[in-house]
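Q: Give me the 3D complex with zinc ion.
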Amino acid sequence: MDEMDLMEGMKSLLIRNGTVVTAEREFTGDVLCEGEKIVAVGEGLAVPEGAEVIDATGKLVFPGFIDPHVHIYLPFMGTYAKDDYASASRAALVGGTTTLIEMICPGRDEDPVEAFELWKGKAEGLAACDYTFHMGVTRFDAEMPDKLRRIVEAGVASFKVFLAYKGALGIDDAELYETLKLAKELGVIVTAHCENAELVAKLQAELVAQGKVGPEWHEPSRPVRVEAEGCHHLMTFAEQTGAHVYVVHTSCADAVEVIRAAKARGVQAWIETVVPYLVLDKSAAERPGFEGAKWVMSPPIRDKSHQPVLWQGLADGTISTVGTDHAPFDFATQKHMGHPDAAKALNADFSPRGEGGNFTLIPNGIPSVEERVKLLYTAGVKGGKIDLRTFVRVASTEAAKIFGLYPRKGEIAPGSDADLVVFDPEFRGTISATTHAMQTDYSGFEGMAVEGRPELVTVRGQVVVRNGEFVGAPGSGQFLRREPTHF
Ligand code: URP
Ligand code: ZN
Ligand code: ZN
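A: Here is the predicted complex, encoded as structure tokens.
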């Protein structure tokens, strides 16, 4: 590092007179950053010589938001997710998210250490925000304890398992048991996709055999009780092993109830929901002409009647976090893998009635990393469902606490990383694929009005978004080493 770099690295930034909001408090004041850290928080702080001063009068000042569940490099369902770290981190930052936690999803026959290196390599040199990973355990054999131990020692203090995607990423019960036992021993938390894989496979086969092949049949193939059974399954295994578990993308009241009951009897469980479930409902996937494929994700987007339970769970602390499960696939090409024309081209008509197509071939997932904060603020805070502190808690602080990043991330206090979002609550906008930073050719939230936006964003003291525009540098993001905390 030469002298100029050193001076740039130590630059002071004073964000003045904003409404500072953390998970615990809300007050009008200033935040002073030096180099990569916050060094003072208070009222009327003196301006250090040479500091950049941002007037945040009328603005909200939040800790950088954390998305605990994204997919960026994702080989899945015969294709690859569309973003790379440059595009995904740019979209995240424009949306106010300064830390991403990505799922490493190796195939069952892949070496986990090599997978960890592969995923890490995809981020290095491209990420403009900070990042870390959940290590996917998609197989458990005699070599795994040693290999997973090495990955934990390298700074990845959480695992991911799939109780779905039979024959692909999914593991069986014996593997689940061994994974949870090892996690308990190592003090790492296990994140889990909970759906009963056997039931999904049976229901899919029955629906397809009946000619029910359009995207609207995706939800009936994975009904709420199938998700609740997956949660019950995980809770039973967590109870037996004493492992700490985190249920990702919880979509429905039935699943929340199962986990709530387990928590009440002492199971160490945390619940994540994701933004599509809060602002969309299953009618999206029922849109005619195959358009519904845009909203095929798993678990599926549910009936609207589940949303009040999700909002209430966030408000009362039953649900800890809101992620995205960002899993971007183009509509025109990738989602169309389940379209009748694709079936015709393959000479593979799956329907006995001849309609062709097959919802089970539509890559699951929705691009959303850019929109989480705005949508949660609009629907949650402005919609009167959650207050500002809860908003910060579920979109930032709680993820930092659960995944061993707190108080480095998720907090505005001296010593924390200077990851800050100056948010303009007066901004009004409309979400559209024509203006979003994500790579996909569609937005699952097209035309939705949003209130407020991140106007200025910093990552470790560097301004990476100004006037809502990305001004960061690909490659400036850092891998965040995390230590085991779940003993
Ligand atoms: O539909 C989804 N959720 N796609 C991404 C993979 C996963 O299950 O998280
Ligand atoms: Zn999943
Ligand atoms: Zn996911």
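A quick observation: The pocket of zinc ion (ligand 2) is lined by residues 193, 248-249 (CB under 6 Å).
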